[in-house]
Specification:
The protein has 439 residues and is of the alpha/beta class. It has 15 helices and 16 strands. It has two domains: 129 residues, Aspartate Aminotransferase, domain 1, CATH 3.90.1150.10; 279 residues, Type I PLP-dependent aspartate aminotransferase-like (Major domain) (Aspartate Aminotransferase, domain 2), CATH 3.40.640.
């Protein structure tokens, strides 16, 4: 822990703002670690929470059910399915957060294959640097060196393929330009080919291809080239494996569509949702799957999926999540989101003015700025210098709260943020770069 670090005590929130106990106001530049979609103290989310509180705050979901969970499950099925895409996600399993949603997903895949007569399907493949959470199963799927190096000996073996990171791809022959590297890359899509080859090699032993579609968040906001999700999912299905998508970050319209999978024109067999599911109000997650994955659990009691949590399908969380989905599908919501996306695109241009900015990339409401020691060679700063953290600390002094992923700076504003507030966020972050790295 940095001995000079003193956390800000947050007392209140209002729209895109956080208010400290000393009265100072800060713009919430990362939507409170990627969860807050509509801003703090949204009246419709507040109302849904208070309304449910007048009925019951919590009840066990073991052998019971309740109306908020049933209603939310129905809404989630409608929300997650694109009418033109298959398979259809029509079964919902509730849990608490992204880690547990992924843990449930991998367990239902393994148990389902075992009960369907394919017990040898026990291997998983995912891109290098993937992060899926901090439970043992989720860590095994991700195996992030940064977050999990202390626990490597406790994790079950999984396979890795190169991440589809165009800016740092060893196959990309293009020289650096002042543009998203996905736009000027020169390659033969080797990242997808290598993943397809590994999937084919594992073959009948493969349980699932696991992917954060479109954006790998904790790996450094790696934004994938078009077609990667579609090609790799097709390869997995060709060998009879499942496709498990982690949409904990990318779901709920963060990248533009309800699920990132929709824009990639490919649907998973299992998908994990969390973070923005309740609009940043309460912990709640959902793992959605198909009838085909669910079928092996029918019948005898020994086929039961014995996985659950004390706060599974908490009524307060379900009520506010349903209200959140309503806000996301409201008449003016899409127009509002696209205004945010355009505003981020516009402010992103100023970051190219600084010589230590190597790549600027955006997907919907996610803007990532990668800091480098040398733009011409893409050389990194030594990790011990913590340039990203220092820049965000400097931006915090200017009224912006955000959190880097290594030396990748991130802006991910709530959907209520005004153009002027986005401009202020970007200017604070840019001034933080200038302070820590004078040109």
């Amino acid at each position: 822990m940095d001995p000079e670090f003193h956390p800000i005590s947050i007392q209140a929130g209002e729209g895109a703002w956080l208010i400290a106990s000393d009265g100072k106001r800060y713009l919430d530049g990362n939507s409170s670690i990627w969860t807050n979609l509509h801003g703090h103290r949204h009246p419709k989310l507040d109302a849904a929470l208070f309304d449910q509180l007048g009925r019951i705050a919590h009840s066990s979901f073991l052998g019971l059910t309740h109306e908020p969970a049933a209603r939310l499950a129905s809404e989630l099925v409608s929300f997650a399915n694109d009418p033109d895409l298959h398979p259809k996600l029509n079964r919902v399993f509730f849990s608490d957060d992204g880690s547990t949603a992924m843990e449930a997903g991998l367990k239902m895949i393994l148990q389902g294959f075992s009960q369907a007569g394919e017990p040898l399907r026990r291997e998983f493949i995912s891109p290098d640097g993937a992060y899926h959470g901090d439970t043992i199963g989720a860590m095994s799927l991700g195996k992030s060196e940064t977050f999990h190096h202390h626990f490597q000996t406790f994790l079950f073996p999984t396979r890795k393929v190169m991440a589809p990171a165009c800016y740092r791809c060893p196959f990309n022959r293009a020289k650096p330009e002042r543009e998203d590297a996905r736009r000027y890359r020169k390659c033969n899509f080797e990242c997808a080919t290598l993943a397809e080859e590994e999937i084919h090699k594992v073959g009948h032993r493969l349980a699932a291809w696991v992917l954060e579609p479109k954006v790998q968040g904790a790996a450094g906001m790696i934004m994938h080239p078009e077609g990667y999700a579609q090609r790799t999912a097709a390869a997995a299905r060709k060998v009879g494996a499942r496709v498990l998508f982690d949409e904990v970050l990318t779901g709920c319209h963060r990248t533009g569509t309800a699920l990132a999978a929709h824009s990639q024109r490919v649907m998973p067999d299992v998908v994990a949702l969390a973070k923005g599911l309740t609009g940043g109000y309460l912990p709640l997650a959902a793992t959605l799957t198909t009838e085909k994955v669910f079928a092996p659990f029918h019948g005898d009691p020994e086929k039961t999926f014995f996985h659950g949590h004390s706060y599974t399908a908490n009524p307060l969380g379900c009520a506010v999540a349903t209200a959140n989905l309503g806000l996301l599908s409201g008449r003016d919501a899409e127009k509002q989101r696209h205004r945010i996306f355009r505003s981020l695109q516009e402010v992103s241009k100023q970051f190219w003015q600084h010589p230590n900015v190597g790549d600027v990339r955006q997907e919907g409401g996610i803007l990532a700025i990668e800091i480098v020691r040398d733009r011409s060679t893409r050389a990194r700063f030594p990790s011990k210098e913590k340039r990203g953290a220092r820049i965000c600390r400097a931006a915090q002094d200017l009224g912006l709260i955000t959190r880097p992923v290594g030396d990748v700076l991130v802006l991910m504003p709530p959907f209520c943020t005004t153009d002027e507030e986005i401009e202020k966020m970007a200017e604070s972050l840019f001034q933080g770069i200038r302070k820590e790295m004078p040109a």
